[in-house]
Amino acid sequence: MKGAIGLITRADDAGSSATANRAILEACDHGIIRNVSLMATCGAIEDAAELFRGRDDICFGVHLTLNAEWDRVRWGPVMPNDRVPTLIDAEGYFHRTPEAMKAAGALLDEAFLEMQAQLNRLRELGFPIRYADEHMFSDAYLKGTRNGSTGGARKRGSSISAVACADCRFARRRTAK
């Protein structure tokens, strides 16, 4: 239709808490959100899997998470800590910021291992993952994580691809005025 535009709405941090999961679900139920980015590393991801089970009206993506910024709620990697030691602090959690991750000397190979593990975890929970995005723009501090689709991920045996979910059935159609 001439003059129609598509608006892609997305909620991120699903799986970070039960409260966030329910708020995102409510927004989906009201037709506000159609794309949901999931944090495989967080404690409420199983809750999210239960809440969103069978929702084929939602486009799910992996919210690639390499830091844990909160004071009271922290999370660490899906991979065993000994496989990704440069991505974690002394307590076994992700560094608080992407800047701290860079300062600690995080390795790109470890980041790709962890990102693939996050994708695998979400698939194991039954999510049909259709896109990838980043939590707090890790690529700005660890170059190469964003553009896995241009070869870096494939060279490392990863299926991560930073492709947005532009499927038209998930876009809200509005007529331009």
UniProtKB/TrEMBL annotation:
State one Pfam family annotation: YdjC
InterPro entries membership:
Glyco_hydro/deAcase_b/a-brl, YdjC-like
Q: Which cofactor does it need?
A: Mg(2+)
Keywords (A to Z) from UniProt = Carbohydrate metabolism, Hydrolase, Magnesium, Metal-binding
Query: Per its UniProt record, what Gene3D superfamilies does this chain match?
Result: Glycoside hydrolase/deacetylase (3.20.20.370)
- Note the superkingdom of the native organism: Bacteria
- Residues folding into a coiled coil are none
Would I find Hydrolase among this entry's keywords? yes
Q: Does the keyword S-adenosyl-L-methionine apply?
A: no
What name does the UniProt record give this protein? ChbG/HpnK family deacetylase
* Source organism per UniProt: Paenibacillus cisolokensis
